[in-house]
Design a protein that fits this description.
The chain has about 180 residues and is of the alpha+beta class. The protein is built from five helices and eight strands; from the N terminus they run ββααβββαβαββα. It binds coenzyme A.
Amino acid sequence: MFAVSLREDAELRPLDVWHAEEFAEHMDRARDHIRPWVGAAFVTKDVDAARNLLRRYADRRAADEGGLFGIWLGGRLVGGVLFVSFNADWGNFEVGCWLEPSAEGRGLITAGCETLLEWSFRVRGMHRAEWKCRADNERSAAVAKRLGMTLEGESRECWPYEGRRYNKQEWAVLAPDWRSENG
Ligand SMILES: CC(C)(COP(=O)(O)OP(=O)(O)OC[C@H]1O[C@@H](n2cnc3c(N)ncnc32)[C@H](O)[C@@H]1OP(=O)(O)O)[C@@H](O)C(=O)NCCC(=O)NCCS
């Protein structure tokens, strides 16, 4: 319905229930790449599961508690950014992201997250943006760093995956720091 232009031939748009088939096709290209690093519930297996996921996020956006936004590169859905949580009462929100492998390395996620942070801090008056990732997820931590976030700590062995438990990092940036870095 509406789109924000990112870099190159790329657009950020709301990802809605009517995108279920497109999302399912994209997930076929992304599944193996993202599964180690995101929650199992996000990695949908077919169109019905995709529709359910998109509906859950649509409901959360309607409740002002989350939201899902796709990134289209050359007209193809290649990944996206999301409000994992959004608590307007407390002024805190968490941002997440994913990409299919062919779209990595172009700055699309950094640009998409900048759009979410800019809107949250300046339009919504939010105070704290959080970012959580597996401690060995170097590409994800690099995005947090590029967004000007600070590594605040690590929760030990809280992330189970395929018989092992991994540490989780928590990064954050506060509104005054964002504004002073971004004019
Ligand atoms: C995490 C993930 C989304 C990061 O993707 P990414 O492509 O590295 O991140 P960006 O889109 O911001 O691109 C940054 C890369 O583009 C490059 N780049 C090119 N132009 C750029 C620009 N204008 N601005 C910023 N970076 C740019 C950067 O140098 C960087 O490449 P490098 O890491 O080789 O140096 C991706 O690796 C992924 O999907 N991983 C699996 C799922 C996952 O981990 N999700 C996060 C869970 S916490």
